[in-house]
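Today's session is about reading a structure prediction critically. Students often jump straight to the picture, but the first step is always the sequence itself: look for stretches that repeat, for charged clusters, for runs of hydrophobic residues. Only then move on to the predicted structure, which in these notes is written as discrete structure tokens rather than atom positions. Here is the chain we will use throughout the hour.
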Amino acid sequence: MPGRSGYNSLFMDPTQITGRVGDVSPQAALGEVQIRRGSCYIYGRFDNGVGNVAAVAGQACYWRDLANYVFTSDISDSQGGGTELCLCAGVFLYAMTDLYYGWIQCGGVATGVKLSGTGAVGQILIPSTTDGVLTTVATGSVTAAQAGAQRVGTQLAAAVSTLATVYLTIREA
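Below is the predicted structure for this chain, in token form.
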């Protein structure tokens, strides 16, 4: 799959990220999408926001600037302004350095995803008002504040210490 803007990341594999902190300069086109082993990944730039919220593997990230593929870990700086209505971009694959470029997961099975509680198999996931956390919601139990929230995925297994395996259903920007 050729990249945009003259980049070609045909041989890049976002799943091979051991020891990564991101890229100082872009190594793929911003917004490039890769499908690997049934999961979807998107390349962008990380900005830890005004609150300097660190990127942590398995935690949610949000669109800070959707048009330029900039994501943040600081929900208050996201498009949607710190509510359940923010735009979730995906989950971090690794602890990314502020203002570096890198891959996040936006679709498919993801393990070690941070949830608001233990939840249960089949519960839907939406953005939380807490940085990096997805809220579990039983079907039919959405509150008025959550009514317009983006459905981020579905919980596949009960969480252990609020970390769970989920199926992400976020679409490419």
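Discussion point for the tutorial: The first strand starts at residue 33 and ends at 36.
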